[in-house]
Write a structure and sequence with these properties.
single chain; 144 residues; alpha+beta; 2 domains; 21% strand; rod-shaped; membrane; Membrane_assoc_protease; NfeD family protein; transmembrane helix
């Protein structure tokens, strides 16, 4: 046991902290593992035990204090990429069958045929006209 350097024990500790990181997906364990890795590097460069522990604590606390709030901020923001029906809002479509306020018309939107109705019930759009999709209600596109 005395033949094994302190840096090896720090690496074993880093690996041991990596296991709960993978199992629980808690990034704090990864930050502690990085601190253990920094302590292993300190031990490998000849730092004594007190310096190794101070490096472990300093790196771990710094990572938790800096990286964790940034990660939480990114986790709470909505993705910029719209998908599904949200991606169709604002797109242009071509009228295939007369579209009015009754909802009996058809449009070609993103390569697919959709039922459509006009947002303004007094307005009608004739085949061939381009319209803008403002909302999707079920399987019906609301257009202007």
């Amino acid at each position: 046991m005395n033949d094994i350097g302190a840096w090896v024990w720090w690496l074993v500790g880093a690996a041991a902290l990596g296991i709960p990181l993978v199992v629980t997906a808690m990034p704090e364990f990864g930050m502690l593992a990085a601190g253990a890795g920094a302590a292993a590097a300190t031990a490998g460069l000849g730092g004594d035990v007190v310096v190794q522990v101070l490096v472990f604590v300093a790196v771990s606390v710094a990572l938790i204090a800096v990286v964790r709030p940034i990660a939480n901020r990114h986790r709470s923001t909505r993705p910029q990429l719209a998908t599904g029906v949200d991606a169709l809002k604002g797109k242009q479509a071509v009228v295939l069958e007369r579209v009015d306020g009754s909802g009996s018309g058809r449009i070609k939107l993103a390569g697919e045929v959709w039922s459509a109705r006009a947002l303004d019930t007094d307005r009608a759009y004739e085949p061939g006209q381009e319209v803008d999709v403002v909302e999707i209600e079920g399987a019906t596109a609301i257009v202007i």
